[in-house]
Amino acid sequence: MSTEIVRGAGSRVMASDGREYIDLMSGFGAVFLGHCRADIADALKRQADSLWACARFEHPASAQARSAIEAILPTGYHFGGLYSTGMEVAEFAMRVAARHTGRREFVGFASSMHGKSVATAALAWANAPVGSTQMHLLPFVSTATEDQIVEQLTGLLAGGRIAALFVEPIQGSNGGHEGSAAFYERLIEACHAHGTLCIFDEILTGLYRTGPCFHSDSLQARPDVVLFAKSMGNGFPVSGIALREPLGVAADALPGSTFSGNPLAAATVAATLGAMGALDMTTLVTGIDRTVRQRFASRTDLFTLRGRGALWVLEASPRVDMPKALEGIRVQGVLASSHGRCIRLLPAATIGLDDLDRACGAIEQAAEAAIVKAA
User: Entry's PANTHER family (predicted)?
Assistant: First the structure.
């Protein structure tokens, strides 16, 4: 049964039939500070009353957004521009890498998610609608060892044709699989040894989703490019790119597009990052991490738990009837996304921990009720 959502407030949404749900989808992770947060909504409304679009001209909101973004970037990185979606900024990163290296081939990991355009799909999906001999897919840690992956990557890089490697540090659309910190550092070092850029797609993991501002903050070796989006507009479509010095953006990389960096998006970014700065985001996300672990870590009879912070995937046991479990979760007033046998939890950082625990309890109960009894 489809559900029509008509209103949201914080971590709850209301449907047209009057039912209220605890929202663990958060607009696929975009609404990270909760639905209809007043200070962000007010900033968007003020901007909507003055200017919506102005082509490539500067406007006051662009300076505010730039300042807010530069304040959160790790040392040694600079802001490379705003775009409209994660898919768009991923494609722009390809152009930056091609222009910088003079190469035209790329490497990605199977079943990552960098977008659904022809180029970004070919970078991650074996069933992409248009294949390309310029896109190379490597297995990820769900199907190969880290040593095997590094060996395959090194073989590709040795040919001197690879412009960039794309890394989604936690595969949010593929079971929450994640490599070790040492693995990511080896990938980065291998890229640098062969003149290849390493691009971390933190569109989902960035901006405190996993605890620190960026997932890559804890690495000793640092990626050349970091992509971020989703939560930076708290639901308004916007994305960004950070480049490690001395990497820059050349004019023939074709920066910008019709809607990139528009005043509405920029005003929302400035307000969202300002709100994040006023909150203790790491403490909020740590509370979510603790709550989810306490509820599910011991329930190996029901789920395999993967993730961290405010990004979790529950891979259901083969004993769980998934359609029945998913229906039970919805009936108990919880919204969570699913793919195959996986349930993904993307709560807002501002969710009340009592609400989160109640929602997790509903998921646990629905899975228990959906266990298929042995014949």
Answer: ACETYLORNITHINE AMINOTRANSFERASE, MITOCHONDRIAL (PTHR11986:SF79), AMINOTRANSFERASE CLASS III (PTHR11986)
Cα–Cα dist 251/265, whole Å? 23
Q: pLDDT tens-digit profile of 290-304?
A: 999 999 999 999 999
Examine the domain organization and report whether 317 and 341 are in the same domain: yes
At residue 134, φ and ψ (nearest 5 deg) are -90, -5
Segments forming the whole domain that contains residue 306: 5-33+280-370
Claim to verify: residue 252 and residue 350 sit in the same structural domain = no
Angle between helices 263-278 and 38-48 (to 10 degrees): 160
Do 84 and 263 touch, CB atoms closer than 8 A?
no
CA end-to-end span of the chain: 30
Instruction: Report pLDDT for 131.
Output: 74
**Residue 96 forms beta bridges with which residues?**
none
Count how many Cα atoms sit within 13 Å of the Cα of residue 294 in the half-sphere of its side chain.
12
pLDDT digits 0-9 by tens, 72-108: 999 999 999 999 999 999 999 999 999 999 999 999 9
pLDDT of residue 110: 96
Place of tokens 């009894």: 373
Peptide bond into 246 cis (omega under 30): yes
Q: Of 278, 299, 321, at which residue does a domain stop?
A: 278
Q: What is the mean pLDDT of residues 153-176?
A: 97
Tell me: the pLDDT tens digits for 10-56?
Answer: 999 999 999 999 999 999 999 999 999 999 999 999 999 999 999 88
111 in any annotated domain: yes
| β pairing state of 225-228 and 162-167 | unpaired
Tell me, yes or no, whether 335 and 310 share the same domain: yes
Q: What distances in angstroms separate CA 345 from CA 224, 341, 357, one per listed residue?
A: 29, 13, 12
Provide the pairing of β-strand 20-23 with 334-335: parallel
**What is the Cβ-side half-sphere exposure of residue 34, based on CA atoms within 13 angstroms?**
16
Q: What is the CA radius of gyration of the chain?
A: 21
